[in-house]
Amino acid sequence: MTALFTNPLPIPVLGFCAYSGTGKTTLLKQLIPLLNQRGLRLAVIKHAHHNFDVDIPGKDSFEMRKAGAKQVLVASNMRWALMTEDPLDDDPQLQHLLRQIEVDKVDIVLVEGFKKLALPKIELHRAAHNKPLIHIHDDNIVAIACCDETTVPASLTRLDLNNVAQIADFVQHYQQNWQATVINLPVDASKAAKIDDTANNKNGISVSQGVAAVLAQITPTNHPEVVDLIDIDNHVLAQDIISEINVPQQTNSAMDGYAFAFNSIANAPLKVVAEVLAGHHYPNILQDGEAVRIMTGATVPQGADTIQAIELANEQNQKLILLETDKIIKGQHVRLAGEDIAQGQVALAAGTRLGAAELGLMASLGFHRLPVFKRPIVAVFSTGDEVSQPGDQLKANCIYDANRYTILSMAKKLGCQVIDLGIIDDNEQTLTNTLIDAGTKADIVISSGGVSVGNADYIKMALANVGNTHFWRINMRPGRPLAVGNINQSLFFGLPGNPVAVMVAFLQFVQPAIRKMAGEANWLPQFIPAIASQPLRSKTGRTEFLRGIYTLGPDGKIHVSTTGAQGSGMLSSMVNANCLIVIGDDHDTIPTGGSVFIQPFADLL
Ligand SMILES: Nc1nc2c(c(=O)[nH]1)N[C@H]1C(S)=C(S)[C@@H](COP(=O)(O)OP(=O)(O)OC[C@H]3O[C@@H](n4cnc5c(N)ncnc54)[C@H](O)[C@@H]3O)O[C@H]1N2
Ligand code: MOO
């Protein structure tokens, strides 16, 4: 039995497990220098079963800790160490320990111990020791390093326990090919293929498994087109854009004021020899003791290197007195040519989504049209006898269609071209025709409602007529039922009917699908750590998405509370929220002050 584990880091974590005496530490001691030689920066986490100490009695740090400091951080120019007294009844939490790793300093974390956790591991096995194989009960083993006598199943990589270079090859390959697609809710692509409807119906699947399975079905677009800058609206750039000019083109002033050579301050008063307006230049070289009156954006004359703002200068009869000269810094208020973007530099990389800032930058470089990827086309419809068109009279026992509007709006925000298919009558033939038609027009077809387990309605029959659709039970709340399938070349999503479930499921599953399909590079959902301002209810084994309001506390940290009632039909809870509070499936209820992740709505909704 393995315990749930989610890698909270954007770098791979690889465990080494074995019965004691197999030689884990010996192997790691040989492996680490070899991997270092290959340029891999490593962190190692080692589980110790006893009351270890890393400090030396008599040293100041040791004495301060023994005197009662809960944390002692000792640092030199070579290294630093943080020692924390954290007595626990149970084993330390690997996730908590991993969060202490500085991920910008290392490429992979090797873990020794924690063998019961469901993290990817290399098993070390010596047949001569007569110990059972761990992989039999642990499907997180990715390779077995062993001797000739051990039998290894074909599905696992066999490594020679005595061939450290071969094990280093495996670790290096693992690191190079590992992909973190979701922070905190990692997409475990290896599990994507394992979802089958029987297992899924019994136990459900995790959010990360679902995302991995969805992403595995998507090939990024390779259809570029050239679009005028003015018509670009959240498109994704199809090629690197290289600047043909320096931005700014000339060294210019950031202030209305006076330009002069820093070295002439001693020769004050300076003589004002000209005025330079934006779009103009002073044709001569400024001499020692001279200054020009200069406006913001005007080219700084040759010979000048410093600007003083007009407020800190007095000019009379072309004589310039500079005030507060002791505060003038050489080069102040001068914007250097090319300081924003230098000629020949990649100004924007392919795969960048083009928002306001990116469009402004492209315009500042003189581009008036850009190669972008064709936008994904998303078709949306609603079904359900009770679902009525807003604007019509609301019939008894009915509700207005909210989902089509939230889905269309979220798809538009992601730069998609949308097709509104309206509310489709609950009848097998009409729905089948709609699906076939939508499949020819759209890259992604989305419906809402009619996907829960007990439902025997027409959408399921219609889907069976047109393609292969899987009905998943995702271990999340809200948004448990989800249908994913294909209609010809199109991807189909059947989102649950409850309006909040629709939005949450869209954000977790449809959004990454659209972004991948649209050709967006380096996209990761933004999960930001925050502090719970109140106890938050959840359950291990299920990911909870609560509607939250985050604020910046006086301590400079982000604090989050819920919007109140969390019914999955209550759209007002989404309106009042500015984020989703995400409590991963490895957590139970979070106490006040506990740490959670939030997914800010920011530009998503
Ligand atoms: N016996 C079970 N019942 C339910 C389960 C379950 O596992 N076993 N799951 C529940 C969960 S969780 C959800 S979510 C819903 C999802 O059901 P469906 O996807 O089949 O959706 P419907 O039943 O069609 O509708 C649910 C709810 O949403 C309203 N709705 C539907 N379409 C719209 C729309 N376009 N705009 C606004 N509101 C809409 C609909 O009226 C219902 O109130 O199933 C639970 N039941
Ligand atoms: O998907 Mo449902 O109730 O979890 O809203």
Automatic annotation (TrEMBL):
It comes from the Bacteria. Its cofactor is Mg(2+). It holds the Pfam family MoCF_biosynth. It is an enzyme of class 2 (transferase). Residues 379-516 form the MoaB/Mog domain. Pathway: Cofactor biosynthesis; molybdopterin biosynthesis. Its EC number is 2.10.1.1. Signal peptide: none annotated. InterPro entries: MoaB/Mog-like_dom_sf, MoaB/Mog_dom, MobB_dom, MobB_MoeA, MoCF_biosynth_CS, MoeA-like, MoeA_C_domain_IV, MoeA_C_domain_IV_sf. Transmembrane segments: none annotated. It catalyses: adenylyl-molybdopterin + molybdate = Mo-molybdopterin + AMP + H(+). Keywords: Magnesium, Metal-binding, Molybdenum, Molybdenum cofactor biosynthesis, Transferase. PANTHER family: MOLYBDOPTERIN BIOSYNTHESIS PROTEIN, MOLYBDOPTERIN MOLYBDENUMTRANSFERASE. Belongs to the MoeA family. Catalyzes the insertion of molybdate into adenylated molybdopterin with the concomitant release of AMP. This is Molybdopterin molybdenumtransferase. It comes from Shewanella vesiculosa.
